């Protein structure tokens, strides 16, 4: 059984809800009950180990066990030998998984985003003249990223926060 981050979050949420029905139990005991109810595993520890196994299925470690490991899901590079790096990877992987569930697709990795920026830059009208005048290429952020950001913020119905992410906003105010 593959247990993802959303399963772990659900167990934790159910364990908090069980506080009303089982006020005398500690959090760990309620998590055990929730793991049995939700996933059918023996306890929360087993669910956590299955989640760790699922997490490490995405990691490609070079032969010999030393060197830089890379996660194929979140594209994070880290040293699998160091606990700090594994914890950092877990945190980033969990965020990436949450975003992919919220958007309904897996966001593009760094190399894909840079390729999208480059393609968007060359497709914009007037870029040849601008490059000739300045001698440098201007960074154009990916159109898809901006569209996704607007869609997410529209769902939260708080469009005022869009100004925080829009660097051109200050220039338009002048």
Short description:
The chain has three domains: 1-56, no CATH class; 58-107, no CATH class; 110-173, no CATH class. The chain is 63% helix and 4% strand. The protein is built from nine helices and three strands; from the N terminus they run H-H-H-E-E-E-H-H-H-H-H-H.
What do you see in this structure?
With 174 residues, the chain is mostly helical. It folds into three domains: 1-56, no CATH class; 58-107, no CATH class; 110-173, no CATH class. It is 63% helix and 4% strand. It has helices at residues 5-21, 27-39, 44-57, 83-103, 110-123, 127-134, 143-156, 162-165, 169-173; strands at residues 59-60, 69-71, 77-78. Strands 1-2-3 form a three-stranded antiparallel beta sheet. A hairpin with an 8-residue loop joins β1 (59-60) and β2. The longest helix is centred in the middle third of the chain and has 21 residues, at 83-103. The chain is flat. It starts with a helix and ends with a helix. The model is unreliable at 133-142 and 157-166 (pLDDT under 50).
């Amino acid at each position: 059984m593959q247990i993802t981050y959303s399963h772990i979050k659900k167990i934790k949420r159910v364990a908090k809800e069980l506080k009303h029905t089982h006020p005398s139990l500690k959090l760990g005991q309620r998590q055990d009950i929730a793991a049995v109810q939700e996933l059918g595993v023996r306890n929360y520890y087993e669910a956590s180990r299955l989640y760790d196994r699922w997490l490490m299925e995405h990691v490609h470690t070079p032969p010999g066990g030393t060197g830089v490991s890379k996660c194929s899901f979140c594209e994070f590079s880290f040293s699998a030998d160091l606990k700090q790096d594994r914890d950092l990877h877990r945190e980033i992987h969990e965020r990436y998984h949450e975003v992919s569930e919220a958007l309904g697709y897996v966001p593009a990795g760094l190399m894909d985003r840079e390729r999208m920026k480059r393609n968007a830059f060359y497709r914009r009208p007037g870029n040849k003249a601008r490059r000739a005048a300045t001698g440098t290429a201007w960074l154009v952020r990916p159109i898809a990223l901006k569209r996704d950001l607007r869609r997410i913020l529209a769902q939260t119905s708080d469009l005022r926060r869009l100004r925080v992410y829009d660097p051109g906003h200050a220039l338009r105010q002048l």
